[in-house]
Amino acid sequence: ARSPQLRNIVQRAEDLQADYDFIVVGGGASGLTVADRLTENPNASVLVLEYGSFDSHEDAVLVPGLLNLTSTPYWFNLTSTPQLHLQNRSFQVTIAAAVGGGTCINGMLFHRGARADYDAWEELGAKGWNWDSLLPYFYKSENFTPTSSQFADEWEIKFDKDVHGSQGPIQASYPPYQFPVVKNFFHAFHGLGIPTPRDPNDGSAQGVFWAPSTLDPETKTRSYARVAHYDRAVQQRSNYHVLPMAAVTKIMLDDHKRATGVEYLARNTGKTHTICAKKEVILAAGAVHTPQILMLSGIGDPKDLASLDINIVSELPAVGHNFQDHPTMFFINQFQNDLTPNADDLVRNKTFRDEQLALYRNQRQGAFTIVANGGNTVAFVPLPNITASAASIITSAAAENLTQLYPDAPPSVFQGYRAQRSSLLQNARESRIAIQETAFNGGFMPLTLLHPLSRGRISINTTTHLAPPLVDYRTLSSPTDLAIFREILRFNRKLLLQVPLAPLQPIELVPGSNVTSETDMDNVLPGIVGPTFQHPCCTCPMVARENGGVVNPETLEVYGVYGLSIVDASLWPLIPGAHLMGSVYAVAERAADLIKERWNM
Ligand SMILES: Cc1cc2nc3c(=O)[nH]c(=O)nc-3n(C[C@H](O)[C@H](O)[C@H](O)COP(=O)(O)OP(=O)(O)OC[C@H]3O[C@@H](n4cnc5c(N)ncnc54)[C@H](O)[C@@H]3O)c2cc1C
Fold first, then answer.
1. Which of 71, 103, 213 is the pocket-test mutation for ligand 1 (most atoms within 8 Å of CB)?
2. Which of 53, 68, 95 to mutate to test the pocket of ligand 1 (most atoms within 8 A of CB)?
3. Of 350, 420, 450, 477, which is least surrounded by CB within 10 A?
4. Got the DSSP string for 91-128?
5. Is 241 one of the annotated active-site residues of the chain?
6. Phi and psi (nearest 5°) for 242?
7. Model pLDDT for residues 560-576, shown as the tens digit of each residue
């Protein structure tokens, strides 16, 4: 007989039960959250099928400062199509394949978008999804530990405990270290009229601030979905199974269009298997793969599916459209008169690095408590604060030619996009949302466009098992996005001229101080803007079908079929002005409640 532990932990297809109540496709942030909540009920059996492997709790995952995105084994092997408006360059599609998904290797910034970001979801048709309805779930997901008032005062960390959760599975805290130059940045932003909010997570999501990290306050290790929503739960629950290295290839649907289970390929044996779901199949494969799986299962644009000989089950032409991410450029400056220690010292100065690593190992202090090449100090700035041309940019954005912008969108997607655009432009005009993010802890500064007007698409051109989807970001297809990037660059150049930063004597390396005229910027920016800040979303939005919707917002079930729901970041109509993980966890928490409700659990 097997030990109880073995019954809880499965590693091979042979160890699975014959069927489960729920099958969750994808064991990332959303998938594990939902699986955890469903298995709180001992009568519900849940299987999560995850494409990637379990990590080994290695330092590169657990120790923030040892994260190495170049050598991590947890990337999908996936490249975008050539990007027309980015000088035809192709890009790595930076999504994770591992139990825990993106949360295994992400930058650990844990914060929320603005109230207006989520209220816009409801205005666009996602009935029941707004800031107020999500707030209890932001709380539910989080266990916030404040920092000492002395450290907070010294480093301008502001927080309000009342806007945070204190019982949730995901740990949120502040690293107990920072590079001194961060103070100069704070003062420079203040000089430009960008304040530090009382707490960025109170629905404001604007200003210059420290975002909490998903950092365990005791161990100073990463708090992520694998630990918080699987390890924590599974030892006590024989009803919660996760099978790693299992690539779901399609959903099985019966003649009544009910999802009865899934087909998957065990990646370590190459064998294909099927497994049945007695209640529901729940898609949580992320915004790139969830639409791919739908299309492979006959749910999508009939034109495209017919050309691949896929039997059409539900005509949903919007599947895979409305693809959004946060395009980013790197503004790189060398500080000739830099403060020490600094982020470069961690790379170039072996003595400093060794000293800091020892400090981390022995006392859980120092620079390794911060994510490598990252940090959690950021500025989120509305359009009217970055440029005096905000009004004219908004006027020309409203007049953009949609057909040029979105050549192959079906009418329903157009309709939905029009509503999105007016909502976005109104919120931008009234400074209810931030338009740009500057992340900073040295001269290497990612500048991010938080509310792009360009829309990409996920599609498929083959039914071959394990073949990747086509990922077309279409970054900068909206001329407005390019115009805003010009203003973002000008604004951040102005930042570096402020009294607190000027003494560092920055020399601009990228794009280069000679790039000043509009024409020069328009030539150079498409060569340095990248399509992603690792935030793909919005490819199966929960709005009305006639407005480009794929999912019923009240039930999260896919239109036209039964027993099939979606819980990941594909659901959202619009990308929020925030790093996505906080919203992914909250949405998945609410999704779990909706699913439990319909099954009286
Ligand atoms: C490098 C990086 C840095 C980031 N930094 C931050 C940050 O600092 N702060 C922040 O808030 N957010 C950050 N993010 C984003 C955040 O991690 C994601 O938004 C979040 O993980 C998305 O959750 P999800 O459940 O939608 O998808 P994921 O977490 O990506 O999970 C999807 C899972 O589905 C699996 N899957 C896909 N296809 C299949 C299939 N066919 N069969 C079975 N399984 C499948 C994948 O392997 C994956 O594990 C970052 C992401 C990355 C990659």
1. 103
2. 95
3. 350
4. -B---B-BTTGGGGTS--B-----HHHHHHHHHTT-TT
5. no
6. -125, 125
7. 999 999 999 999 999 99
Whether 209 maps to a domain, the answer reads no
Residues 6+ apart with CB under 8 A from 334: 443, 506, 507, 509
| DSSP-assigned beta bridge partners for residue 143 | 166, 171
Which of 494, 450, 502 is closest to 194 using CA atoms?
Answer: 494
Per-residue pLDDT at 166:
98
Is residue 572 included in any domain, yes or no?
Answer: no
Instruction: Answer yes or no: is the C-beta of 105 below 6 A from any ligand 1 atom.
Output: yes
Tell me phi and psi for residue 72, to 5 degrees.
Answer: -65, 140
pLDDT in tens, 382-400: 999 999 999 999 999 999 9
Whether the CB-CB separation of 206 and 244 falls below 8 Å is answered with no
| Pocket probe mutation, ligand 1, options 53, 370, 556, 579, max atoms within 8 Å of Cβ | 579
Catalytic residue (choose from 111, 164, 229, 535): 535
581 in contact with ligand 1, CB cutoff 6 A: yes
pLDDT of residue 2: 41
Is the C-beta atom of 570 inside 6 A of ligand 1?
A: no
Contacts of 337 (CB under 8 A, 6+ apart): 503, 504, 505
The overall pTM is greater than 0.95: yes
Give the chain's domain count. Answer: 1
Residue 550, domain member (yes or no): no
What digits encode the pLDDT tens for the residues 440-453? 999 999 999 999 99
Has residue 526 been placed in a domain? Answer: yes
Residue 55 Cβ inside 6 Å of ligand 1? The answer reads: no
- Is the C-beta atom of 540 inside 6 A of ligand 1? no
Residue 102 Cα to ligand 1 midpoint, Å, equals 3
Q: Give the H/E segment covering residue 290.
A: helix 286-296
Q: Which domain holds residue 448?
A: 381-530
Was 48 annotated as part of a binding site?
no
Residue 289 annotated in active site: no
Strand partners, 565: 282, 557
| Token representation of residue 57 | 């709790």
Distance between CA 526 and CA 194 in Å, rounded?
28
Instruction: Tell me the one-letter amino acid at 460.
Output: I
